[in-house]
Specification:
With about 290 residues, this protein is an all-alpha fold. The chain has a domain of about 170 residues. The chain contains four helices and no strands. The longest helix has about 60 residues. It is rod-shaped, with a radius of gyration of 27 Å.
Length: about 290
């Protein structure tokens, strides 16, 4: 009974601390109402406007990543169906071979044996393609988590920008510690970097699985004389994000500086608006 109580206490402690770290990111703990800086001239709010725009972009990127995960589920389902069909083709080839052997017709036997070898080669390729799509799906899920973390990071930077503007204009909202906002943004930046690294790790596994499939598929195509290409979600596209070696092109979250009188010091300049959009040479999802 004592052991059960200890387990319950540990579980409650983990939940109170925000879970195991594998769950999706939660909302920000600290916000500043826009009304507190509403009377500050717009020409002094450039950093706030820029941070808000980047936050909006990051929200769209997170929504797009979610849609890609759903599409990958459908693609994986189709790949599994194709693999099932390839196994049925082997069964048919085995039955045809047995029939040919009973006829003692060497031409039929040779043809049946060749058909069976081709069916087996195709099944191996189809099986490897399923593994590739599974790896790609895992990558997309990690990438989706990354975009979620990135979205909250940009929101935290938006809140920090508002706090900086408020402080530089001697505005001190009751019950709000303006010095907490840079810390919040820094914490979210660290979470984003961790999620980014995990996504990159899964991406490399997906790239490796893709190469294994391409090799097996080339062998099967050569044996069967098949022409044309199967759908490949990570195939390089001209001007697309899967060209060359790949990678998630987001700069490492910058160090959030303490509050200073100059609001421009709070302005960050990641490579792109949301921090997620891959530069040429990355293998982020399409």
């Amino acid at each position: 009974m004592r052991g059960l109580w200890q387990l319950v206490c540990v579980t409650l402690f983990v939940v109170a601390c925000g879970g195991s770290g594998d769950g999706p990111p939660g909302p920000l703990a600290k916000h500043i109402d826009d009304m507190h800086i509403a009377r500050i001239p717009l020409d002094q709010q450039g950093s706030v406007v820029e941070a808000q725009n980047k936050w909006s972009i990051s929200k769209m990127e997170a929504a797009n990543a979610e849609a890609q995960v759903q599409e990958a589920d459908s693609q994986l389902h189709q790949a599994k169906n194709d693999h099932k069909a390839s196994k049925l083709a082997i069964d048919s080839a085995i039955a045809a071979k047995k029939s040919a052997e009973q006829s003692s017709d060497m031409n039929r036997i040779n043809t049946a044996q060749n058909d069976l070898r081709n069916a087996e080669a195709s099944e191996k390729a189809a099986k490897q393609r399923v593994k590739y799509f599974e790896a790609y799906q895992r990558y997309l899920k990690k990438y989706q988590r990354y975009t979620q973390e990135n979205m909250y990071w940009h929101e935290a930077k938006y809140e920090a920008a508002k706090a900086q503007i408020a402080k530089s204009n001697s505005i001190a909202p009751k019950g709000i510690n303006l010095d907490d906002f840079p810390k919040q943004a820094e914490q979210r930046g660290k979470r984003t970097e961790g999620a980014k690294q995990k996504a990159e790790g899964e991406k490399q596994k997906a790239v490796s699985a893709r190469q294994d499939w391409l090799s097996q598929q080339a062998t099967a195509d050569k044996a069967t004389g098949r022409t044309g290409t199967l759908y490949d979600p990570m195939a390089p596209k001209e001007g697309g994000p899967t060209m060359n070696k790949g990678g998630i092109a987001q700069e490492k979250p910058e160090q959030i500086k303490p509050m200073e009188s100059n609001p421009g010091n709070m302005n960050s300049t990641p490579t792109t608006g949301g921090g997620d959009k891959p530069a040429e040479g990355s293998a982020a999802p399409q």
